[in-house]
Amino acid sequence: MIKPNRLSGEQYAENFSDIHPPFETTDAALVEANRCLFCYDAPCMKSCPTGIDVPKFIKQIATDNIKGSAHTIFSSNIMGAGCSKVCPVEKLCEGACVYNFMEEKPISIAKLQRYSTEKAMAANWQLFVRKSSTGKKVAIVGAGPAGLSCAHVLSREGIDVTIFEKESKGGGLMTYGIAAYKVTPQFCEDEVNYILGIGGIEIKYNQELGKNISLDELQKNFDAVYLGIGVGLARQLEIPGEELEGVEDAIKFIYDIRDKGYDKVAVGDKVAVIGMGMTAIDAATQAKRLGAKQVTMVYRRTEMEKPCTQVELDIAKLDGCEIIWLAAPKEIIGENNKVKQLVCSKMILGEPDASGRRSPIDTGETFTLDVDMVIKAAGQMPFEDLVNEIKFKIQRQNFNR
Amino acid sequence: MADISSNFLGIKSPNPFWLASAPPTDKKINVLRAFEAGWGGVVWKTLGSQVKNVSSRYSAVNFGGRKMMGFNNIELISDRPLNINLKEIGECLKLFPDRAMVVSLMADNDKNSWHELIKKVEDTGAHGLELNFGCPHGMTERGMGAAVGQDPEIARMVVEWVMEAAHIPVITKLTPNVHSVVPTGKAVVEAGTNALSLINTIQSITGIDLDTLVPNPYVAGKSVFGGYCGPAVKPIALKMLTTIAQDPTTSKVPVSGIGGVSTWKDAVEFLLLGASNVQVCTAAMNHGFRIVEDMCEGMNNWMDEKGFKTLDDFIGKSVEKITHWENLDINYHHIAKINPDKCIRCGLCYIACEDASHQSINMEYGKPYNTYTIKEEECVGCNLCQLVCPVNECITMVEHRVAPEYLNWIEFQKRGLPLNDH
Lengths: 401, 422
What we know:
Mean pLDDT of chain B: 96
Strand order of the largest sheet of chain A: 6-13-7-8-9
Number of domains of chain B: 2
Strand content of chain A: 15-25%
Strand content of chain B: 15-25%
Largest sheet of chain A: 5 strands, parallel
Number of domains of chain A: 3
Number of strands of chain A: 14
Oligomer: heterodimer
Order of helices and strands of chain A: HHHHHHHHEHEHHEHEEEHEHEHEEEEEEH
CATH architecture of the largest domain in chain B: Alpha-Beta Barrel
CATH superfamily of the largest domain in chain A: FAD/NAD(P)-binding domain
CATH topology of the largest domain in chain A: FAD/NAD(P)-binding domain
Largest sheet of chain B: 8 strands, parallel, barrel
Helix content of chain B: 25-40%
CATH class of the largest domain in chain A: Alpha Beta
Strand order of the largest sheet of chain B: 3-4-7-8-9-10-13-14
CATH architecture of the largest domain in chain A: 3-Layer(bba) Sandwich
Number of strands of chain B: 18
Radius of gyration of chain B: 24 Å
């Protein structure tokens, strides 16, 4: 049965408490900071999608220059605080740390980044000074990580920014798309406010492109428009039964957890999660933490090909999620329009596909799981229609010019 | 098992590790604990006219997250009544007759004071005396300590006074706060001292509190120069020790080595450069007396491995390895080699060589890992890359002689050989 409010307040609080606790003391942070070798052209830095100068910010913790450390982080990534909590660092900076070659534990880069950035946010150190206004105006669509980062850089340069956000809160993926045990709603709100602290940025909430606002209008009223709308469309399974009650997209499920509060989100007794990416893990673990009795993750390839990191998989395993490898959803069977069973095809691995991973091949054999909820986390796609429409307009505009 | 027992001027101890004259040796309770822990001997904290100390007294230099790389004190000589000190020295001697008991002295600057003090100390049954000519703070202003040690003639005079009265071995402790320890060392050896010990602490300021702007250690808004010691001073002590070992006059007497001895390896180095035993203070203040266990065991194991049966088998063995720069072999050349299997791609060798040496390391870009190799024709063999490399034996220095024969700088000039052209 799918129902909300399965646990007590204390149980929810415990299940959704911070999974990566911060350094308890300055001394602990210093011990770790002093382990850092201060590599040159550092592999950690080169493995950071935002190019944070990791050795520098860690050295600055060691020299008791926390303000400088936070400035180094935020110079590259104004969402550095949130990223320190949600990044899959085991396959990024920490995965590249040279200590791995020594068979030594890599530097706890994320934890150190959290140390500096949390101090900066708590004290509201505004580390960037906005240049005097240039009179230029830029519209940004989407107050997620991309939009906020763009806004902050523009504001530093003295440009007035207006962000149009379809939700009632800023932060985008950080606020609505990540497991709550990684970042709390309060933190997400604080982070947005901290970023806005520089001034010159206004967010207009509940404004959706194509509904309340149009690109034409924005282009008319602003010197430039930046679209930071993310990749928020859930890939569908295209199998029979997908329309049944109890079948849900993982991003919607996670969104509800972040938006409504834990006790308001309904979850089944027996939940199947389709996929093995980071979002699949976030959905499976949170279904379990909301009180589902049994959570089974279904993935069509093997552990070797999994998109999520080992650390993430371990969280799911420790939460008691079961995992079935080499299984692809074939059909969802319902009763009274409600999910009753998930039929899966047994797969084997064939030749490598375009991604370099061996592709799954249907053996023709099937098996059936008794479930009352199916959460789909089979990948996310850009808002293709919207983008195509816009691209067309932009091309036409350039042509006319 | 090697024999690490020590005989210093007839003062016997089961091992060559003595505690230096300092807070750990200023009363019976500490000294008994030290002997129980296994220390071979102690030099009792300096006795003289009773003084009054201030609070606070110590400060330190930390480095790379480790505490007390260097240590500094502004404490004076013993601030306890002389008769209590003397009584306790006698009691410790009775309880541990097999350990060395040397008493550090700093009498007022007249002959009678020295004679009276020596008489009283000898009455305790102590095995030897150490003259404190080194204390760099507090006592110097009163014409004592380093004020004596810095002037060879005053030091000579005081040692002459002492030798008139002393019946037990006399060790003269030298101050490093001079351009060379040799002149004072020579003067006191000529005046009859039976042995030397060095170094005492080095005048220093360890740092400043950046909130109050008052240097450390803090005493009611002020500070003074203190005496620096601990691991940071070992290289200076070893150099000064070597100059004593090289001088024909000062090398005639045994030397007790002091200055940053923290491990058995440090102690072995002091002995290799001519010390007959070592005195330890900071390491014990940092970690407690228990460190002596590994000092004994480590030295013993090393001696077994090297085939040394007694301390005398290796004391002074490295002295002759220190020569003058002009005698170094210019034809010797070695080149760094990076072991790619051990390299962890930290780039520390590259940036050190690039920014601060001879641009002799090649960086091949990779994401995320660069590959580093030595440009053999550019490498001058300076060691910098090997020194900064965090991996043991990843960078080795491989010998590539320029020519087989020995050639020094004097000969090089004589032959008019070419200098570098770039």
